[in-house]
């Protein structure tokens, strides 16, 4: 069986880590295949949203396969793109979603944080458990985690090595929705379908403004937002959208699940 499975569903690209016998831990071969998958998604204009998930419902990804840690650090993409395969790639200018079932730990948590947002099944667990063996976060965890959950929450996870529940992760803002066990991919596909069918140019420029604004002051970010959207305000997609609004065509946006869904 391949260690990484890729699948196209319309304009959505599903990337599945497929090492259930190792709780979907990433070894060197898996890291290289993940790198190939992300680069395929980046280069294919027909694909709009990437979903990252793990096979089965026990583990999204338990992190690096520590039994082969040295080989992982020496894989062909490790220095430039990160030991886990793609964590240092920052120029994929399209949305990505992590669909999480079960354990999302260590390097697996770092890969989930690479994605724009995270949908988690209720039984999922999160943590920087590599703390116990002195293995550092070298796939973006020290840079992305605090940007997602805030400084105190990030340092709490990084320094204690605590494993937290999906409910705790939702309260932190680490995940954005909790769904019943076995439904994370299904829900992520629903959201990906909605995203991929929106007028595209303004969406990707909004996303670009958010990410590039992280390194700017507020006045700089506001100027950057204005410049990015000069083209958006003249885009035929927006003019068509306004025409549909005037004609009463107002499709419903996705509705988050109830907090008591699980």
Task: Give a concise summary.
With 262 residues, the protein is of the alpha/beta class.
Give me some keywords for this one.
about 260 residues, alpha/beta, 2-enoyl-CoA Hydratase, Chain A, domain 1, 2 domains, 6-stranded mixed β-sheet, 4-stranded mixed β-sheet, 11 helices, 10 strands, about 40% helix, about 15% strand, globular
Blueprint (SSEs and pairs):
Layout: E1 4-9, E2 12-17, H1 28-43, E3 49-54, E4 59-61, H2 69-73, H3 78-81, E5 96-100, E6 103-105, H4 107-114, E7 117-121, E8 125-127, H5 141-149, H6 151-160, E9 163-165, H7 166-172, E10 177-179, H8 184-197, H9 200-213, H10 218-228, H11 236-246
Parallel strand pairs: 2-3, 3-5, 4-6, 5-7, 6-8, 7-10
Antiparallel strand pairs: 1-2, 8-9
Helix pairs in contact: 4-5, 5-6, 9-10
| Average of per-residue pLDDT values | 92
What amount of the residues lies in strands? Answer: 15-25%
In percent, how helical is the residue content? 40-55%
| Count of folded domains | 2
Q: What string gives the helices and strands in order?
A: EEHEEHHEEHEEHHEHEHHHH
| Strand line-up of the largest beta sheet | 1-2-3-5-7-10
Number of strands: 10
| Low-confidence blocks of residues | none
The secondary-structure class comes to alpha/beta
**Major sheet description:** 6 strands, mixed
| Count of helical stretches | 11
Q: Looking at CATH, which topology of the largest domain would you report?
A: 2-enoyl-CoA Hydratase, Chain A, domain 1
Instruction: Report the top-level CATH class of the largest domain.
Output: Alpha Beta
Distance between the termini: 33 Å
CATH superfamily of the largest domain: 2-enoyl-CoA Hydratase, Chain A, domain 1
